[in-house]
Amino acid sequence: MKNIIDDTNIKLLNLACGSKVSAQGNWTNIDFSSPIKGVMEMNILKRLNFPDNSFSVVYSAQFIEHLTLEQAENVLNEVNRVLKPGGVLRLVTPDLEELTNSYLNALKTLKNSKNSFDINKYNWIRIETFDQMVRDYSGGEMKPYIYSVDKQMQSYLNERMGLSLYPVTASINKTQHFNVSCILGLLKKIPKRLFNLTSSLFETKYSKVGRFRQCGEIHRYLHDIYSISNLLSKTGFSAISRVNPYLSKIPDWQTYELDIVDGKVVSPLALYVEAKKPMVP
Q1: Using one digit for the tens of pLDDT, what is the confidence trace for 203-220?
Q2: Radius of gyration of the chain measured on its C-alpha atoms
Q3: So what's the pLDDT on residue 53?
Q4: Residues sharing a CB contact under 8 Å with residue 30, sequence separation 6 or more, in sequence order
Q5: Which backbone phi and psi does 61 adopt, to 5 degrees?
Q6: Residue among 20, 16, 73, 13 nearest 44 (CA)
Q7: Rounded distance, CA 67 to CA 218, Å?
Q8: Whole-angstrom distance, CA of residue 62 vs CA of residue 82
Q9: Could you give the CA distance from residue 89 to residue 109 in angstroms, rounded to a whole number?
Q10: Local structure of 177: helix, strand or coil
Q11: The CA-based dihedral angle spanning residues 219, 225, 227, 228, taken in that order and rounded to the nearest 10 degrees
């Protein structure tokens, strides 16, 4: 099979990429805002500014959970439009089924045990499931909790969260390119940030919370395999299947080091789903 990264005609779209970009392949990386060089800034919720049938692959990780069902449907309709017939969409998102099962198991264990490790596991699952939906400030409960745990709990978090646990650590890998151009990108945003800082001085507590909850950090929905499959089917996709970090219909997927970096899985327990845009009859 021909290596996909050697074919410049195969165009790939990384949707809401953040700083998670690949050094390999003919990728177009887009997000609402990014300091990373080469990332195209775009209001993804309005429209994808590309012609119909532009891309062979669309990849999006840890994004769809930040959308309402209505927003997700609109975005997926746009993804379908810009995908070529037969093109592959790959989504990575938190898995509500796994989180629910882990929560119930942790709760069941606590009914028969008061071991501190079991208590900590229960507390973490609760935080992992709910914190990004209910928090009123950046980082919520999750950030201070991560940096306060003992070694035993640290090992447990590493098993659950993989490289996604520590954004600072994860930034020192091949999928990140933070350099002078990134710094210049941040500098260009200083005037806007100063304006926001000045404006915030006159905001009430409630308006600050409201503004934060609209900033994109909040989870608006958690999916399981049924809900995501239903959404994909509704927006015109077919051949919907659950995959894993290693498995993909995209040739040579691991070459891109987006889900696996230096042999380590970024999000071990996430929900990985792929679907295709049907071929034209």
Answers
A1: 777 677 666 666 678 899
A2: 20
A3: 97
A4: 13, 14, 15, 16, 17, 39, 40, 41, 42, 44, 48
A5: -120, 135
A6: 16
A7: 9
A8: 20
A9: 38
A10: coil
A11: 70
* Stretch (H or E) spanning 169: helix 167-170
pLDDT, tens digit, for every residue of 27-45?
A: 999 999 887 888 999 999 9
- The three-state secondary structure class of 172 is coil
Token readout for 4 is 């996909």
Element (H, E) at 76: helix 69-82
* Residues 149 and 157 sit within 8 Å (Cβ to Cβ): yes
CA–CA gap between residue 195 and residue 166 (Å, rounded): 30
pLDDT score of 110 more than 50:
yes
Q: With a cut of 50, say whether residue 181 has pLDDT above it.
A: no
- Structural domains in the chain, CATH included, are 4-94+219-276 (3.40.50.150)
pLDDT of residue 165: 81
Tell me the pTM. Answer: 0.84
Name the pairing type of β-strands 83-93 and 271-276: antiparallel
Residues paired with residue 13 on neighbouring β-strands, in sequence order: 28, 58
d(CA 209, CA 157): 29
Q: What is the pLDDT of residue 91?
A: 98
What is the rounded CA–CA span in Å between residue 39 and residue 33?
A: 8
